[in-house]
Write a structure and sequence with these properties.
Layout: H1 2-42, H2 48-59, E1 76-79, E2 84-86, H3 87-90, E3 96-102, H4 107-121, E4 128-134, H5 171-185, E5 191-194, H6 199-203, E6 210-215, E7 218-222, H7 232-244
Parallel strand pairs: 3-4, 4-5
Antiparallel strand pairs: 1-2, 1-5, 3-6, 6-7
């Protein structure tokens, strides 16, 4: 009986180990799949010349933005009603401000918006506020164009001409595209426009997408450069950890 019991325990242990290994393999496969999907969506495989040119134009080929512990860098902004404000005023809040930098033409931004909306819904906490800073387009048709960029989005009409979005050259044009993002993705938190000097974009090296958290005028979470460093789940973990200590 003892021998049989030992054999049974060993068998159960081996099955448990195999199941655990399979879970890890699935996680790895999912991560690889996400990387491949992101690479395809960004268009790197289509024309590296365009990709390199646009990355250089908007980021100076730098990956770093602000770091945890850095002081908030102020930048002029506008509301969607075209009223002037600034980032310091946006973050003038007795708690944590989650800053989401992005644009409508970034497919990774659109694909992960639901994660942010769920995070917002699950954190109806008086100590947390959310804001999107709408920056320069990632993939306008007159820049780093991605054919069929919107084909997998719910709002896609089947007509590519309906999604012929150029890089805005005025605040009014940027506002139109930002409102389109809000309406299409049901944003229910404030959205602010970076100016045409792209001050916020450059100060936070936030192109094409990036996440930050600000508290008491200091950076308490600094996401890596998008698209690969754009991780709402990582931000959520950092937010929960901070709230637990408040």
């Amino acid at each position: 009986v003892t021998v049989a019991s030992d054999a049974s325990r060993q068998a159960v242990s081996e099955v448990s180990t195999t199941a655990s290994q399979m879970q890890e393999l699935l996680k790895t496969a999912n991560k690889i799949g996400e990387v491949i999907q992101t690479l395809r969506s960004t268009g790197f495989s289509q024309n590296d010349g365009i990709a390199n040119r646009e990355m250089s134009k908007w980021t100076g080929n730098k990956r770093d933005g602000l770091n945890v512990g850095d002081t908030l860098v102020n930048a002029p902004l506008c509301t969607l009603a075209m009223d002037e404000t600034n980032l310091e005023q946006v973050c003038d809040f007795d708690g944590i401000t989650v800053l989401n930098f992005g644009s409508y033409t970034c497919p990774v931004h659109r694909r992960r918006i639901n994660e942010l909306l769920a995070l917002f819904k699950n954190n109806q906490d008086a100590r947390v506020q959310f804001a999107t800073i709408y920056i320069a387009e990632a993939h306008p048709v007159d820049g780093w164009k991605i054919p069929g960029n919107f084909r997998e989005d719910e709002e896609y009409t089947g007509d590519e001409d309906d999604f012929c979005i150029k890089q805005p050259t005025t605040m009014e044009e940027r506002c139109v595209v930002a409102k389109r993002l809000v309406e299409s993705k049901n944003f229910n938190w404030p959205v602010y426009l970076d100016t045409m000097k792209n001050t916020a974009l450059h100060a936070y090296n936030s192109w094409p997408i990036r996440l930050y958290m600000i508290e008491n005028g200091k950076v308490i979470y600094a996401g890596a450069q998008g698209p690969f460093g754009y991780k709402p789940d990582e931000l959520e973990a950092a937010l929960r950890k901070r709230l637990a200590r408040m």
